Description:
The structure is a homodimer of 394-residue chains. Chain A has 394 residues and is α/β, with parallel strands linked by helices. In chain A, 42% of the residues lie in helices and 15% in strands.
Amino acid sequence: xxxxxxxxxxxxxxxxxxxxxxxxxxxxxxxxxxxxxxxxxxxxxxxxxxxxxxxxxxxxxxxxxxxxxxxxxxxxxxxxxxxxxxxxxxxxxxxxxxxxxxxxxxxxxxxxxxxxxxxxxxxxxxxxxxxxxxxxxxxxxxxxxxxxxxxxxxxxxxxxxxxxxxxxxxxxxxxxxxxxxxxxxxxxxxxxxxxxxxxxxxxxxxxxxxxxxxxxxxxxxxxxxxxxxxxxxxxxxxxxxxxxxxxxxxxxxxxxxxxxxxxxxxxxxxxxxxxxxxxxxxxxxxxxxxxxxxxxxxxxxxxxxxxxxxxxxxxxxxxxxxxxxxxxxxxxxxxxxxxxxxxxxxxxxxxxxxxxxxxxxxxxxxxxxxxxxxxxxxxxxxxxxxxxxxxxxx
Amino acid sequence: xxxxxxxxxxxxxxxxxxxxxxxxxxxxxxxxxxxxxxxxxxxxxxxxxxxxxxxxxxxxxxxxxxxxxxxxxxxxxxxxxxxxxxxxxxxxxxxxxxxxxxxxxxxxxxxxxxxxxxxxxxxxxxxxxxxxxxxxxxxxxxxxxxxxxxxxxxxxxxxxxxxxxxxxxxxxxxxxxxxxxxxxxxxxxxxxxxxxxxxxxxxxxxxxxxxxxxxxxxxxxxxxxxxxxxxxxxxxxxxxxxxxxxxxxxxxxxxxxxxxxxxxxxxxxxxxxxxxxxxxxxxxxxxxxxxxxxxxxxxxxxxxxxxxxxxxxxxxxxxxxxxxxxxxxxxxxxxxxxxxxxxxxxxxxxxxxxxxxxxxxxxxxxxxxxxxxxxxxxxxxxxxxxxxxxxxxx
Lengths: 394, 394
């Protein structure tokens, strides 16, 4: 809870060592692409070499065996059976697969929110261009007062023409943890399908996907599950699984998600095998310990930012919509000093060696910090100090 | 030319060292998944670590810079400008992107051949299921007498309902190099679009894609261009480029192939960067030297197989349809001795430690050898000796 965490969490022992990032830059943006523990990188390299040693035996005949362990580890993380989890390259591919599988009629409506991830908005525009789908972006003005308010706004937007509701589990520019269960419930009560874009969710918030009950749920593992790039998944409900195919159809078309998603043409299966190692890396700190550390560090950093006077909160004060990222609105003074959010972001990087994303959303300027196991309190203080210096200088 | 090559080519110096494959197994199946030079694997590992050191700067802001060198190297290999080449995960994804981009009408016909790759057949079945597309597989009985005969059969199958012709540049089960230029010409004369599945072609046969003029051409780089798994491309003609999108739509939808394909969500860009290293590895032997070596070794191996009496040729005797693989039909005796091609393949592996694919195609049993830089003549002799022993034993 932001306003009740004046003290940052105790750093996890050793959690700032053994990463591939360059320590000369303060990386407060774990959220965009993740950062990779050396141990996981080395595991992926071992797996790739293991496959290359006998590619026909291991990849051609043995791929299902290779994927068993990572899929079982992932199934435990997600709270869903392995045979309804398809491994993907990224959440973008998960979205693409689901949109491709729907037999759209012109005028079918997709409801999403004004905080939707930019790439997903583009994917929906493609459906509009191909099939005449109508996109309804529910406005979520800042600050968002509560999860209940968000659910109410989305629910009010549903109509008889709504074919699909597509919402983020954790919004990207605003870093809000959305009460997706209430949205699923409201949609299903009206017979409307729901897809959750959990790009940021696995490893950030506890997941029980089968209990959640969304028709489809996609998520990345290279962010908060510390897996190599190229690791993601698509989960389907029991009702949807047999009609859920990857965008790249290969030998096992129609044979069920396990086989179909397990072979989407020749790819780097070694990265997928390292999902096991990534989850083990996280679990080695203790059950839920990394997730809890990150959430508490983000809460502390959020309070620090608000206290600095440079930032306005955009999320409920009780912290109920925050996970391991915190996004704040920049005050009007910054817009007079910098031509664009990109210019501000570049100034923070060049002045303070702090890598942190500044984003514009429907006219608001936002800054988002991430709290990963490798982050430490002084890094957020560096951010605030850098902004103080920029404020004075300009 | 098969019947005029009694002598195998001189091995390329050092070309059997520095690979990741396990020397305890004779790998006569480079064609399925390729095999990776250690130098290219190490380059990919370096590139991945380079990205991970500063993920936001290098991947987020710098991805176009990272992809410039591999795309330029690839453009030279393919004979096409970089801005109409989209990097893909594999040829299966290239097929998926193109099929997705066509606004099918029920009854639209796709013409392909009976040697079409199994996964592509499945991808076409998906279009049938979604859009009522009719699939016309032109029978190509064995042996195939000539390229001209193949072109004639495909051309004869075209009708006013033909929307797309989709043919392999190098067929997978039968390893035939198809005269695709003549097919493109015949189709375009009738206003029919052509996609070439060049899964096996890059590095096996010289390519001049812009001169070829197919509407779309996809190919893998992990096979005969010695790149890591996850490296492939889709090329579009100048007329088709602006309407050609990847299956995974992301931020740059509609901004042109270079940007759109260059960002299909977060992925392992390090593998794509290693395309530069893979092509350099190949070129270090001399311009076209690896390609020529492989083709001559395959021709010699083909002759050895035919001379053994266990195999019947399925391609023209002048070698005009063979590249760096050779596929032969197995005589009837093998079908009385083994329950299935899989059982025969397993017996060859267990008796002779030779990994070679045995495939069934429309009732015929086929065996296909590959000739890669790491292969040596004794390995094909081992195959023939193994089959002789199996023949005597059973």
